[in-house]
Amino acid sequence: MTRRTTAMVLESARTPLVRRELTLADPGPGEVLVEVAACGVCRTDLHVVDGELTEPSLPLVPGHEVVGRIAALGPGVARFEAGQRVGVPWLGWTCGACDYCRGGRENLCPEARFTGYTLNGGYGGYLLADARYCFPIHGDYGDAEAAPLLCAGLIGYRSLVMAGEARCLGLYGFGAAAHIVAQVARHQGREVYAFVRPGDAAAKAFARELGAVWAGDSGEAAPEELDAAILYAPVVSLVTAAQKAVRPRGTVVCAGIYMTDIPSFPYELRWRERKVVSVANLTRRDGEDFLALAPKVPVRTTVQRFPLAEANEALARLRDGRLTGAPVLEIAG
Ligand SMILES: [Zn+2]
Ligand SMILES: [Zn+2]
């Protein structure tokens, strides 16, 4: 039985998404058909729509913070049952055979496929997903509240792990990811220093509410020497600011999938064993670890809801920074 669904579709880069009726096949072996309830709007979606990530499978349904329910199971799927709530994240498929996959680093698989980029995502009523990459969603989260956990949460968590044991932790860019990571970091006994877009008083207040010990403009000097800093804003000058702010042996973690070229900087900023690392994608292990931890913290997400038809508006507001917390599309039945 084929199904019709309405989706917001990217037909070519740098053009608005358009509403289209799509036909979905029955789930094949190992696949599930997910009826989408909510889908987060992530900065990565902007990089896809704006053509900065250059290899989307067009026409494309974006969206990789998908929360929905299993509408149909393909042959051989035993880990879920019909009606069960699941999340579909960015990592949609890996080869399982390469050195990265076999070494616990499937996030780096060169053959990997990604939801909402090289596979259709959640800006629509239904999507097909490989069941092995979906997660059950536990806890008392509403569907919209759970959506940002799927990328801002998962990849935010991976970036926090990469920051190591840092006690004084700087977060540059206080959007969807940072608002989740701040709560986890505080739960772990760390001190969070939030660096926001200059003059953004609302973001500073939001960061303080979530437990940051200090919140200031991204250009300001940190009040303490930081053990590590994580960059969620794709603003390349912040790499230099963060390198200045971390102590010797400190780490700067770049958590975004895209940045413009890093400008040159004095070697002194890297001297004394400072490191700059990037975070790429996620592993299923990251997802399992974070989704088990989130209800224990408990992580609370702040979302701004948009109907599916307003996906372009949600993207525009994310691009301009006119949001507090995480934008989420709600998909009505
Ligand atoms: Zn692989
Ligand atoms: Zn994302």
Describe the structure.
The protein is of the alpha/beta class and 333 residues long. Helix content is 23%, strand content 28%. The chain has nine helices and 17 strands. The strands form four sheets. Strands 3, 4, 5, 8, 9, 16 and 17 form a seven-stranded mixed β-sheet that branches. A six-stranded parallel β-sheet has the order 12-11-10-13-14-15, with helices on both faces. It has a two-stranded antiparallel ribbon with strand order 1-2. Strand 16, helix 9 and strand 17 form a beta-alpha-beta unit. Helix 4 packs across helix 5 and helix 4 crosses helix 8. The longest helix is centred in the middle third of the chain and has 12 residues. It binds zinc ion (ZN) (2 copies). The site of one zinc ion (ZN) has 7 residues, from helix 2.
